[in-house]
Each structure stands twice: as C-alpha cells, then as structure tokens.
Amino acid sequence: MSESVGNEIAVLVRIESGFDRQSGRFIQKIWEGTQDGINSVEAELGGADSYLKSPAGGGKWTITARYGSFTDEGTVEVPVSEERLRFNTVYKSIYKNPRYKDLSDKQICAIRQEMQAPVCPDVATDPKFNELQRELYSFLMAGVDSFPIYQPVVVVTDTASANFPWNVGFANYGFTFSTASMIVDAGLSSAWKTNLPAETSVLPGFVFGWLKKPPEIVSVGGNKTQLVQEYEYGLWANVLFG
Description:
Elements: E1 10-20, E2 24-33, H1 35-42, E3 50-57, E4 60-67, E5 80-93, H2 105-115, H3 131-141, E6 146-161, E7 176-177, H4 179-186, E8 206-212, E9 216-220, E10 224-237
Antiparallel strand pairs: 1-2, 2-4, 3-4, 5-6, 6-10, 7-8, 8-10, 9-10
Helix pairs in contact: 2-3
C-alpha cells in the first residue's frame, strides 16, 4: 500500500519468507507508517493468517502480516519435510517362531494332527514327541497360537500451504523397493537411514523389502496441507507385489 488521503500513509517496506516445522513455509509483509495508515492496512488484511500491529516510536507504527499462501510473483514455495521411523506390530503363527526352527515339517505336521484329534493325547509321555514339540503343543493347548514381530515403517510428511499443488500420481504404489531404492524414492536425509534393514531373499518367490503405500493428503491447522508417504518393511510375495 502506498500513500492515501490525509495522513493515512503506510508503506510496504519489506517482504520476507521463512518456515517452521509446525506451520511450514510462510511469507511476511511488513508495513510502516502513521497510525491511521497502519489502521487502513489492518482493515485490508482479510487474507492474512495472522498479523501484529505495534507502535515503532517517533509517531510511526508497523504492522507485520503472515501469509501461508504464496501468491506473490516470483515467490517459490518449498514444502517442509519431516522424516519419521516407527514400527508396526504384526502377529505371525507360533509355528514360525525362531525357537522352533529346528522342528521338521513332519514334526510340525504331527503336532497339527494331534491338535485336531477328537481325544487329547498324553503328549508328555508319547515317545514320538521330543521336548520342543511338547513345549509347542502346550502353548497351542493354552490358546497361544501367535507371537508379535515389529516391522519398521518409514513415514515422510511434507507440509505446505493449503493450496499447494501436490504432484500426486499413482505409479509405483503397491510395489516393493530395495532399501537403497526406497531411500532415494523417499528422499531421506536423516542419519538413521544407515541403520535400516537391508532387503534379503529367504524363500523362492519372496523377498524382504519396502512396500510403498498410497499417499495421504491431510488438511492441518494454520491453513496448511500435508502429504504423507509410508514405506513398510516386510516379507512380500513377488507375484503379488511388483
């Protein structure tokens, strides 16, 4: 705003940009002028997220307005990125617990058959069962048929203004990535990325890797939006996940 009628004089002295993790990128416009002039500016700040008006001394006043939308020509908005590592709890069959990895398929099958028998056998004295089989059988009889494992999940959250044109496509969602490829696709910069588990093949047709999930776009406070992208580590079948 420039000079208007009477002594209502206010001049836009500075435009600056910044960001914080809570609200993302923003622009601040700062005016300086007479009290009447600053009051006139205040009356026209309908699009501002917030503003602060204060006396500057010597009869001058200032007003600083913050905008979350980047509408000024030549201003480029860069979303603020947050990287997070968390864990999902997944329950697997107790037959797959590493404690029982030395039991053969035939020994596991014998336990399954006894679980379906119409009369409960005396497993403790049955010579065809070894110590591990008896332990596993006792867990199953007590209703313990699964155990938890914890799968790492990488979450990348980008924050920008409410009208930011997020480039959301649908390529590569539902596909698995190697650890190195996931780091590149997610653009990870956090130091903990070097400690992420590497992909390994354990069974023909299966691989441990990172499943890329579809993104979420969320409206948040402060007139902002967020793009949330997740990658979950786990054992995936090649024929079901590209």
